[in-house]
Amino acid sequence: MKMRLDEKEANKKYNQVADHYHSWRTKVNPKGWMFNEHLEMPGTFELLGNIKGKTILDIGCGGGIYAKKMTQLGAKVKGFDLSEEMLLIARQNNPDLDLRKGSFYKIPFKEKFDIAIAPLVIDYAEDWDKVFQQVKAHLISGGFFIFSIGNPVTETAEKLEINGERYKYKGISARVLYDYFTERKIYGTWKNIKKAKKALNIRMPTYHHTYESVIKIILRNGFEIFDYKDCYPTKESKKLFPEEYNFLSKVPYFCVWMVRKK
What we know:
With 262 residues, this protein is α/β, with parallel strands linked by helices. It has one domain (5-151, 209-261): 3-Layer(aba) Sandwich (Rossmann fold), CATH 3.40.50. Helix content is 34%, strand content 32%. The chain has eight helices and 15 strands. The mean pLDDT is 92.
């Protein structure tokens, strides 16, 4: 499968972090739970609602965590991912599911689905129009696309330092909104990734779009906005991760969109 440059970069990075990332997500009370199980996932599954008997396409299925949960809720799930290493994990965790190597620019299934989900996935794509066109082609009429992304405002904010010290306001690291209107590739650093007995810092790329662009991409590709959710941490996370809860209950970090094919 020939990959675009944005796909190659995302594929390379996830092949590097696959084992560490899945472990971070699934061990007892890792911090990975805060950002996914206690922040983004509740928002995504709230918008999914009752999925019993629904056919669902899991775009960028990763280690198969969403696929497994959706299957347990009665959905008929198929999925794909760019990363071979992530797919190995996903297939081990979901041996009965059809999980394939594929691209968000060329979905590796022919059939149409009731719902497609892309949790924190399309940020890695440079051309969102092509992604939406592919998703639309694989949804039934009136089918739903549920995708989550980093909050377009927060993801461009930079931490404020004064004289080399990180400035805090009411116990939270202060941030300055910077260059929101320039749509571009931005990098976040995943620190201390365990790989072959080494600890690596991986620069993970995502593509920033303004709220205006996100809305226009949705509309011009034949979808209508059905619902939207700013992700808010669960009550349980307040005890498990008090410092992270203090920040994420005050600053919007992820958002989930539910759009319907016209």
